[in-house]
């Protein structure tokens, strides 16, 4: 047997919607007479529509109507005209730019302490320890200390840098040792990173890190291909990005943009051939004239008739 109408309205009033504000219940007589009124009383109107949205469209468009509605809502809430103007323009006197990475002094001290600890243990190879402004620890080492330092950072209990995230190089031709080799290491155990840097030149090879980190295999091939840094004891040191027959190393600062060799398909021999690059400037004719006087300089000279002396005498006779 279904419950009477009054019981249904009482249950509906006793369980308001989640998050609804508390309202005084209506008398039972009014609840039975208008059950929908009790439901409207239990659900608040969280997002009141502006008056312009309920009326006919405003001449300023939808954005202007929304702005006027926000201004009216702020005025009803008791905000002054200055606060309303700041809210509409999006500016405030207390607005400050957020910091992308706040400075953590505790973390910086820990990194400095760990860098000093590593430098005390291996003073023969570590030449400098520094912490960047973004709390990144860097070890500047001698080229002969690549294998010992990487092995120490991988196996030591307080380090555990067992993952080689990246290996790259930087070319600075103004330095005596123009190439800077950078190793980015990651410790999953302590959730920290460290950067190891060393140096070399075009002719001096450095030891390969494949024996310590297997991930250094293709990274060192890429550095050899792009910069020309030779890694000793590498299992398979050959080009990895450029094509066969490519000459030079593209990431060097003295490498021309056009390159030295171009690769194309030859229809006569039915294969890909590599030929030296022919620069367009080799076919140009440069002179000391102004660019505005270049056209008269290239005009063909008028032909002049050359009459020999013997012919003049015969004509005269």
TrEMBL record:
Molecular-function annotations in GO: NADH dehydrogenase (ubiquinone) activity; oxidoreductase activity, acting on NAD(P)H
Main location: mitochondrion
Cellular localization per UniProt: Mitochondrion
Region feature (Disordered): 1-42
Entries under Gene3D superfamilies matching the protein: NADH:ubiquinone oxidoreductase, 30kDa subunit (3.30.460.80)
PROSITE patterns: COMPLEX1_30K
SUPFAM superfamilies documented for this protein: Nqo5-like
Cellular-component GO terms for this entry: membrane; mitochondrion
Location of the NADH:ubiquinone oxidoreductase 30kDa subunit domain: 141-260
Presence of keyword Zinc: no
Catalytic reactions of this protein: a ubiquinone + NADH + 5 H(+)(in) = a ubiquinol + NAD(+) + 4 H(+)(out)
InterPro entries, alphabetized: NADH_DH_suC (IPR010218), NADH_quin_OxRdtase_su_C/D-like (IPR037232), NADH_UbQ_OxRdtase_30kDa_su (IPR001268), NADH_UbQ_OxRdtase_CS (IPR020396)
Role according to the record: Core subunit of the mitochondrial membrane respiratory chain NADH dehydrogenase (Complex I) which catalyzes electron transfer from NADH through the respiratory chain, using ubiquinone as an electron acceptor. Essential for the catalytic activity and assembly of complex I.
NCBIfam families noted in UniProt: NuoC_fam (TIGR01961), PRK06074.1-5 (NF004733)
PANTHER family in the cross-refs: NADH DEHYDROGENASE [UBIQUINONE] IRON-SULFUR PROTEIN 3, MITOCHONDRIAL (PTHR10884:SF14), NADH DEHYDROGENASE UBIQUINONE IRON-SULFUR PROTEIN 3 (PTHR10884)
Stated name of the protein: NADH dehydrogenase [ubiquinone] iron-sulfur protein 3, mitochondrial
Natural source organism: Amazona collaria (yellow-billed parrot)
């Amino acid at each position: 047997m279904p419950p009477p109408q009054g019981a249904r309205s009482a249950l509906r009033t006793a369980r308001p919607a989640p998050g609804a504000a508390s309202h005084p219940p209506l008398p039972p007589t009014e609840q039975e007479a208008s059950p929908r009124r009790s439901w409207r009383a239990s659900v608040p109107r969280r997002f009141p529509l502006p008056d312009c949205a309920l009326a006919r469209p405003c001449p300023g468009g939808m954005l202007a109507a929304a702005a006027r509605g926000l201004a009216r809502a702020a005025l009803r809430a008791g905000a002054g005209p200055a606060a309303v103007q700041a809210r509409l323009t999006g500016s405030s006197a207390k607005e400050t730019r957020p910091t992308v990475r706040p400075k953590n002094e505790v973390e910086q001290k820990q990194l400095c302490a760990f860098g000093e600890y590593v430098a005390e243990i291996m003073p023969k190879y570590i030449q400098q320890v520094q912490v960047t402004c973004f709390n990144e620890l860097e070890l500047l080492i001698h080229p002969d200390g690549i294998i010992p330092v990487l092995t120490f950072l991988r196996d030591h209990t307080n380090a555990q840098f067992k993952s080689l995230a990246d290996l790259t190089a930087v070319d600075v031709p103004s330095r005596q040792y123009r190439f800077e080799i950078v190793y980015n290491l990651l410790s999953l155990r302590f959730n920290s990173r460290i950067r190891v840097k060393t140096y070399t030149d075009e002719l001096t090879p450095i030891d390969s890190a494949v024996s310590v980190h297997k991930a250094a295999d293709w990274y060192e091939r890429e550095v050899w291909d792009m910069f020309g840094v030779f890694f000793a004891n590498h299992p398979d040191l050959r080009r990895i990005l450029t094509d066969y027959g490519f000459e030079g190393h593209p990431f060097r600062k003295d490498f021309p943009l056009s390159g030295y060799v171009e690769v194309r398909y030859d229809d006569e021999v039915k294969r890909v051939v590599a030929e030296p690059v022919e620069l367009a400037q080799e076919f140009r004719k440069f002179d000391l004239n102004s660019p505005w006087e270049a056209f008269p300089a290239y005009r063909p000279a008028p032909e002049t008739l050359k009459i020999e002396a013997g012919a003049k005498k015969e004509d005269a006779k």
